[in-house]
Amino acid sequence: MTSSTREPFPPPPPTPARPVEEDWHGTTIVDDYQWLEEQESPDTRAWIESQNRYTDALLDSRPRRQELLETFGRLIRVDSRGVPIARGGRVFYPRRLAAEDQPRICLRDGAHGDERVLVDPSELASDESATVELLHVAHDGSRIAYAVREGGRDEIVVRFREVETGSDLPDELSLANYYGVQLLHDGRRFVFTRLDEDGPRTYLRTLGEEGERLLFGEGYGSDKILYAVAGNQDRFLTIHVLEGSAGRKTELWVLDLEADGEPVPVTTDLEATFHGQVLDGRLYITTNYEAPNGRVLAVDAADPDRAGWAEVVPERDDAVIEDVTYAGGRLLVHRLENVQSRVGVFGASGEDLGEIELEDIGTVASIRGTWTSDDVYLGFGSFHVPNTVFHVDLATGAREVWFRPDVPFDTGDIEVEQVRFPSKDGTEVPMFLVHRKGLERDGRRPTVLTGYGGFRTSLSPMFSMLALVWADLGGVYAVANLRGGGEFGEAWHHAGMRERKQNTFDDFFAASEALIERGYTSPDKLAIFGGSNGGLLVGAAMTQRPDLYQAVVCTYPLLDMVRYDRFLVAKYWVPEYGSATEPEHFGWLHAYSPYHRVAEGTDYPATLFVTGDGDTRVDPLHARKMTALLQTKSTLERPVMIRYHTDQGHSGGTPARQQIEDAAELVTFLAWQLDA
Question: Which pLDDT does position 649 carry in this prediction?
Answer without folding.
Answer: 66
